[in-house]
Amino acid sequence: MNEEFEEVVRQISRVVLGKEQQVRLALTCLFAGGHLLIEDLPGIGKTTLAKVLAKCLGLEFQRVQFTSDMLPGDILGVSIFDQNTGLFNFHQGPIFTQVLLADEINRATPKTQSALLEAMEEGQVTFEGKTRILENPFFVIATQNPLEYAGTFPLPESQLDRFLMRIEIGYPGRSAEKRILQGEGSQHALEKTAACMNDTRVCEIQENVEKVRTSDTFIDYIQKIIYFTRTSEHFHVGLSPRAGLAISQAARAWAYLQGRDYALPEDLQQVLPSVVGHRLRSGHDRTEIPRKQLMEIFSRISVPL
Amino acid sequence: MNEDRKYIPALTGALFIAILPHALSLPVWITAWCVLMWGYLLASLRFGWPRPGRITRLLLSIAGIAGILVTYNTRLGPEAYVGLLAVMAALKPFESSTHRDRMITAFIAYFIIISKLLEAETLAITLYMFFSVLVTTAALVRINDPYGLWRKNLKKAGTILAQAAPVMLLMFVLFPRLETSLIGMRNTGEASTGFSDRLSPGSISKLAENNEIAFRAEFEGPLPPPNQRYWRGIVFTDFDGKTWRRLKTTPELEKPAYGQKPVNCTISLEPHRNKWLFALDLPVKAPSSRYRLDRDFTVRSKRPVTRKRRYEITSYTQYKAFAGGWGVEKALRLPENTNPRTRDLGKKLAQEAEGTGKIIEAGLDYLKDNDFAYTMEPPLLGKNPADEFLFESRRGFCEHFASAFACLMRAAGVPARVVGGYLGGEINPFAEYLIIRQSDAHAWVEVWDQEKGWVRVDPTLAAAPDRLEQGIEAAFPGGNRGGGFAGRYLEPFTSFAGSIKMGWDAVSLRWEEFFYAYSREHQKALLKKIGLYWKSWKGPLAALGLGLGLATAIIILYGFFQFRIPASEKKDPVKKQYEKFCKKLESSGVARRPNMGPKEFSEYAAARLPSKREQIAAITDIYIRLRYRDEKNPGTVRQLRTMVRNFKPSGAART
To answer: Is B595's CB within 8 Å of A300's CB?
Structure first.
C-alpha cells in the first residue's frame, strides 16, 4: 500500500481502535469523491471516525447535529436584514465547508434531509435565486442509527443512493476494546492527531483516482454483478447504472490506495458490500440484506478470466 | 451456528416427513429416539444449547447400533436396516457443518422414502411419498441456496419433479417387471395374518376381532346373492379329535368341476404370507401358471403371498365337485377314543335316517332344535370339544359348529371336511365391489354325496340364520356391536366417515388396478404394439438405457448451447494460458474458487505450494499486467505462455 495512505490509516487507527478495514473503506469513499454514510448503534464511534477523518486529511470541518425540529436554513444558511446597509445579508450555514459531519441524519425531517442531499448531489446551493458553489473538496459524512430506532425518518432509497458508500463499524474486537477501556483512543488522542494532507492534495488524489485503469475484463465483472442483481430472486430490484458507476469508482479508489493504477477484481470485492449494501433490498421481504449474506450471494459470481 | 439455522430445520423436517410412515412399524424406542434427537437439535438452535461433540456423537452412534442389534437380534431383515437408517438419520443432522454432510443427510431422507415403498404400495403411501420427495428435494434446493425463501425452494423442487415426471413414466413403462419381489431380502419371518393351516376352537373367533382387509373382489356382472358369497380358502381334512389340519399333500386337480353359472371375479389379495388364495366357491381353474388348483378345490400360490396380488378367477356358483372321489376316505377318519357322545349320536342318526341327505338334515335339525347359540364369547372347551359343544355348552362360533358338525357326520358315516374361508363381505357403494375383512372369516362343512359330490353345508346357519345377512354382527347379542349410547348419537358422523372411507377405498382399488395390472405381460404387449419386441428383460432395459441416454444427451446439448463460451472469448490467448495455469494447479490439489481474483488466488496457491511461490507470483503478475493493465504486447503474451508451459507444480499440496 501507498506509504502516504498507510500513514493516514495509522493516524486514524490511533483514535478509532481496531477498525482498519472500516478506516480504509472510509478513505476510499472520500478519495473516490463520494459521500459516506456511517450506520451503526449509538456509542460505536461513528462521530469519532468522521471527526478524525476530517482532521487527518487537513480539511475544514463542520458538524451539524440533526434533530427533528431542524429546518433547511439551519444547514444552508439564512439571509438576515442588516439595518446599517438596509440589505439582506446571507449568512452561510454549516454546509459551506469541506467536510460536513451530518450527525444522526435520520432524526431530521425529510424536508431538511432533502435540502442537504440536494446540495450533495449538485455541489451547489441555490438560495433566494442565487446559486452558491460549495467548497471543493466537499464531503458529507453522515451518520445514522439503524432504522429500527425510535424517532427516525428513514432516508428513502433515492436519497440513500446519493451516498457512494455505507459502512458499518461494528463492535470493537476483544483486544481493541480492552485498549479503549484502558483509556487509549480517547478524546485526547483525537486532539493530538496531526493533519497528514491538505485540500489540494485531496483534490489531486481524486483526479488520480479518475485515471485508474479499468480493463475490459474488469468491466465485464461489474456487468456480471449488475446483471446478476437484476435477474436474481434474492433482490427486490437490481442495481442501476449509477450504482454500476459507483462500484467502478469505489474499486478504482481502493486500487489507488493499494498503490496501483489499475483495478483488480479483488479491489471490487473489497468495496462491493459497502457500495451496494444500501442500494439493494431483499427480494423476499424488501428488508436490507445483512452484509454477511450479501457477501455470500456475491461470492457465487465467478470472476471472468 | 447461524449458518445451521438455514439448513437444519429443512433437513430435519425432510427426515421427519420421510420417517413418519415408518413410525408405526418401527420399534417405539427408535421413534422416540428420532423425536428426542431432532427435538433437542431444533431446541439447541432456538435456545443455543450445546451440541454434542464428536465423541458424544460417536457414543450415540454406538448406542444406536447396539440398540438395533438388541432389538432385531438375528432377524437382520429389511426392518432392521430401516431401523438402522432411522437411528442414524436421527443423529446425522447434528453433523452438518459441511456441504457434503448436508447432501448426505438429504440422500438419507431419499433412502428412507424408498425403503417405505418396498413395504407398501398403497395409493396413500404413494401420494405421501411424492409429498415426501417434494419436501426432501426442497431441502436439497435449500442446501444449495440457503438464502432463498422456503416457499420458493418448494416451488423449485416442484418444478424439478415435474421435469422428472416424463423420465419417471418412461422408467415405469420400460423398466423390466420382475415376477418376484425386487428386493429378495423381503422378510418372511414376520407373522402371517388371517388363517393358519390348522383349525381349533377359538382360532376364527380370534380373527373376528380383526378389522383388517383380507381382500377385495370385483365382479364382472352382478354380485352373487348373499347366500353364495362363500370364499373358499383352505380345506381341513385331518382331524385328531380336537384340531383340524390341512392335509400335507394335495395333488393338483386334473378334471375341473362340472358346474353352471360361471362368475368372473378379480381379487386383490392383501399379503398374508401364506400360500393359499381365496376364490368364490367353487373355483374352476387356476388363474395363471403361478398358481395351481388342488384336488380339494383350493387355489394355491407357488410362493407365499408377501405382497399384494391381483388375480382373475372364474367360479361356478352351482357345481358338482367330484375330483374323482379324491379325499373321501380321509374324510371319514375319526380317532377312536375321542368324543364318544358325538360318535353315539352319529350312529343313532345313521340308523334312524336313510341316505346321506336325510342324515345331514337330521344333524342340522339337532342343531336347530336344541337351543344352540351363536356367540363370540363361547366357553372354553376341553379334551372332547365336539362332545362338550354338542351336549353341554351349546354356545359357539362358526368353527365350533363346523368342526362339531363335521365330526358328527363322520360318526354317522358320511365323509365330511371343514372348509375355511370368508363369508359375505361389505359392498362398496361407490364401485360395487366387495371388501372382505378378516372379521368375515368363516368355517363351514363339506359333505360327500355319491350323486352330488362334495356339498356345502353351513351348520352355523342352522343356529344363526342371521349370519348371512348381518355378517359377524349376528354373534353379538343386542345387535349393533359399536352400539349403545355413543353409537346412536354419533351415527351421522360415523356414517359420513364411513362413506369417505368407502370412497377412498374405491379410488385406491382403481389405482392398484392400474398399477398392478401393468405386469410383465402387459409390458410386452405394449412394447409389441409400438413395434418393439424382446425375448428377455434385457431388451426393455436396453431401451430404457437408450432413452435415458438420449434425454441426458439432450440436456447436455441444451446446456452446451445455453452456457457455451462465445468464440471471441475462446480465442483469447491470455485467458487460455491462465486457465491452463489454473488447471495445472488444480491437478496438484489447489483449486481456484470461481470468485477468487488473480491476486487472491496467487496468495492462496502460494501458501499451499510454498516452493512454487515465485513462479506463481510471476505468472500472476504477467497475467494481471496483460489482463488488467491492458498491456498489449505480444511479447508479454509469449512470455506468459512460456512460463505457464514451464510451470510444473508437482507434489501434493499442503492443505
So the answer is: yes
Q: Is residue B192 part of a domain?
A: no
- CATH fold for the domain made of A212-305: Helicase, Ruva Protein; domain 3 (1.10.8)
Q: Does residue B311 belong to any structural domain of this protein?
A: yes
Q: Which run of H or E residues covers position A64?
A: strand A61-65
Position B397 scores a pLDDT of 84
Domain count, chain B: 4
CA distance B574 to chain A (A): 8
Residues B170 and B219 in one domain: no
Whether the predicted interface score ipTM is above 0.90: no
Same domain, B163 and B309: no
Residues B576 and B553 in one domain: no
B117 vs A280, B103, B114, B120, B133, CA distance in Å? 46, 22, 5, 5, 12
For residue B626, give how far its alpha carbon lies from the nearest alpha carbon of chain A (Å): 9
pLDDT band at A256 (very low <50, low <70, confident <90, very high): very high
**Is A295 an 8 Å CB contact of chain B?**
no
Residues B170 and B251 in one domain: no
Any B CB within 8 A of A124 CB? no
Give the residue from B9, B42, B20, B7 showing the smallest Cα distance to B132: B20
d(CA A237, CA A245): 17
Query: What pLDDT sits at residue B479?
Result: 43
Domain that holds residue B371: 198-321+330-475
* Beta-carbon separation of A215 and B597 below 8 A: no
Q: Are residues B241 and B141 in the same domain?
A: no
HSE-CB at A18 with a 13 A cutoff on CA atoms is: 14
B254: cell is 386334473
**β-pairing, B433-437 with B309-320?**
unpaired
Q: Contacts of residue B627 in chain A, CB cutoff 8 Å?
A: 215, 217, 305
DSSP helix, strand, coil percent of chain B (3-state; round to 5) = 55, 15, 30
Please write down the HEC assignment for all residues of B557-603. Answer: HHHHHHHCCCHHHHCCHHHHHHHHHHHHHHHCCCCCCCCCCHHHHHH
Domain ranges of chain A: 3-206, 212-305
Mean pLDDT of A177-204: 83
Top-confidence residue, A247 or A76: A247
DSSP-based three-state secondary structure for B280: strand
Of B141, B174, B207, which closes a domain? B174
Report the CATH number of the A3-206 domain: 3.40.50.300
The Cβ of residue B427 has, within 10 Å, a number of other Cβ atoms equal to 14
Mark whether B571 and B553 lie in a shared domain.
no
Same-domain pairing of B445 and B314: yes
Does some domain include residue B115? yes
B275 inside domain: yes
CB-CB neighbours of A226 under 10 Å: 18
pLDDT at A1 over 80: no
Alpha-carbon distance A282 to nearest alpha carbon in chain B (angstroms): 10
* Positions in chain B short of pLDDT 70: 1-3, 74-76, 119-121, 147, 176-194, 202, 469-493, 516-517, 519-521, 531-537, 540, 563-571, 650-655
SS3 of B185-208 = CCCCCCCCCCCCCEECCCHHHHHC
Say if residues A78 and A86 touch (Cβ distance below 8 Å). no
* pLDDT reported for residue B184: 42
The answer on B590 and B535 residing in a single domain is no
Q: How far apart are CA B302 and CA B314, in angstroms?
A: 19
CA distance linking residue A116 with residue A113, whole number of Å: 5
Summarize pLDDT for B57-88 with one digit per residue, the tens.
Answer: 899 899 988 888 888 876 667 778 888 888 88
